[in-house]
Amino acid sequence: MTDRIREFLRNRREDGPCVVVDLDVVRANYAAFARALPDTRVFYAVKANPAPEVLGVLAELGSCFDTASVAEIEMALAAGATPDRISFGNTIKKERDIARAFELGVRLFAVDAKAEVEKVARAAPGARIFCRILCDGAGAEWPLSRKFGCDPDMAADVLEHGHRLGLAAYGVSFHVGSQQKNVEAWDGALASAAAIFEECALRGLPLSLVNLGGGFPAKYLQDVPAAEAYGEAIFRALSRHFGNHLPETIIEPGRGMVGAAGMIEAEVVLISTKSDDDAMRWVYLDIGKFGGLAETMDEAIRYPIRTERDGDAVEPCVLAGPTCDSADVMYEKDPVLLPVSLAIGDKVLIEATGAYTTTYSAVAFNGFDPLRSYVI
């Protein structure tokens, strides 16, 4: 927790859970990415945290933006980004949304199927497209499914189809899985990208761009490699597979940019056991999966938890949220260690919650307010 967040929470008087994001951490993270990959443009993944203050400071620093909807495009523009600094990175888009993005000046679109290419060709004539490919997400704490991307063997056909319809076949993208702690995870995907570049060149379609995606981690319970380690590993892989003809590259950090910048303050609502002889305490907070902690699903992301009683004896506890939904349990298979002295009404701090919390918070499930957000 930064001193700025500590001071803000000390003076806060409102009731209910909240997340506080420190912009100084965002600035430091952007600088770290820029140093680690100096020849690579940063396209911040707006979905991670679209707070206007976050977008505004990143726009001032020179960041570009990866967006998933027209609303996110408009947010980036409102923050000061120009259209040439925005990509429409969602491969599943309504044709009218493609048209609106094109009207707003966006010219860079992700695709992973010929049918999507055809929509872009009709709604955004002459635009640049990059094809997303499937890749192995081994090593990621939040692996991605097969929902996005096509088989690498299919990518050249998708890009050539776009070329025939008047689009600019621009490049290839992939994502190695969110919270990826293996710095070598990009190597296999870059080998596939290089093969696609070669195949497209044989077809008379010289490609320019490799979108390296996101996956850069935030620090939760375990240490993670520094941005420099990722930059060195990615540059080695680029050199290995592309030789002296390095492509233009971009990255799409989201979690790695804002995760560590945020802290949630919550309150203990109830502590109980399920029977008189049950030693396992259940600790219920005023925030849970539906209040912004959706990434605790399957206990994939394990947030550091601090209390005002840290230093006292601890014991395993099940941690759950306040809603009337049996799925609203964060950690049960692997209980969390919490102080035995923890009491109803105590404040609990959940660290590294700057990413994917406000955006995953339900609007009013069970009548609970959405997660309050403060950016300082």
Automatic annotation (TrEMBL):
EC assignment: 4.1.1.17
PROSITE patterns the record matches: ODR_DC_2_1
Domain (Orn/DAP/Arg decarboxylase 2 N-terminal) ranges: 25-258
Cofactor(s) essential for the protein: pyridoxal 5'-phosphate
Gene3D superfamilies attached to this UniProt entry: Alanine racemase, Lyase, Ornithine Decarboxylase, Chain A, domain 1
Keywords of the record: Lyase, Pyridoxal phosphate
InterPro entries hit by this protein: Ala_racemase/Decarboxylase_C, De-COase2_N, De-COase2_pyr-phos_BS, Orn/DAP/Arg_de-COase, Orn_de-COase, PLP-binding_barrel
Name of the protein in its database record: ornithine decarboxylase
Signal peptide positions on this chain: none
Catalytic activity as recorded in UniProt: L-ornithine + H(+) = putrescine + CO2
Naturally occurring in which organism (per UniProt): Ancylobacter crimeensis
Record pathway: Amine and polyamine biosynthesis; putrescine biosynthesis via L-ornithine pathway; putrescine from L-ornithine: step 1/1
